[in-house]
Structure prediction request, 260 residues.
Amino acid sequence: MRDLIDMWGNTRMVVLTAMSASLYAAILIPFKVLPIIPGVTELRPANAVPVVCSFLFGPAGAWGAAIGNLIGDFFGGIGPGDLFGFVANFLYGFIPYRAWEALTDADPIPRTLPGWLGFAGVVLIASGACALTVGWGLNLLGFVPFRVLGNVVLINNTLASLVLGPFLLAVLYPRVKRGQLLYRDILHRPPPARTRRRFGLLLVTIATGSGMVLGNLLSSGALHVPFLATAAAANGTGAAAVGLGLLPVWLLLLVGVALL
Prediction:
């Protein structure tokens, strides 16, 4: 993960970060008038941008997603939940290019059935990691139940990326590649061993899938863990049950991300 830090010493990567962030924010802001959960999230076709920028610009796309989402949040009201939004969108922009590299050396433009399946799988994992993080965080703060926000974010991200992502990549990726502006052309850093990356991807997949299921069960009250149920009854929000129950899963997610 050193490229996440080293990129700040490269002028072109910093410019690509600013470009990714401004593009993401510019598309997010107009859709603030179409809320799904007022004050929390809205219809977001812009959610295809972090995935596309991730495949194009790597770590610059990850930082751009986090910063762009924060800029967009300024237009909907800033609060403590925006910290979780920053981390969630960072993961949403970080996981796609790392997961794709763990699976294949091919360009991330789905043309064949295996390519489409791989692309859809990567998008679903990245969307799930984002949904798990922001859903867990805002439920921990007692703002929105995980079963509502987590599922909305997962669907919102997945649909936007699957519908718009392949088209945008088909148009942009060959041009960026010819201009030698792909992150690999700029950073020239050898990737980690593929065995390690695939193990990391496995951990991310397990954490994301189990976290989404566990979060929904805890949030809805379908699953009761004795000491967590007591904590939930004490504050009446379920925040402690979801917050404590999902913490180990989220930590497993971070371990997997670090290995990617």
Notes: The chain has a mean pLDDT of 89.
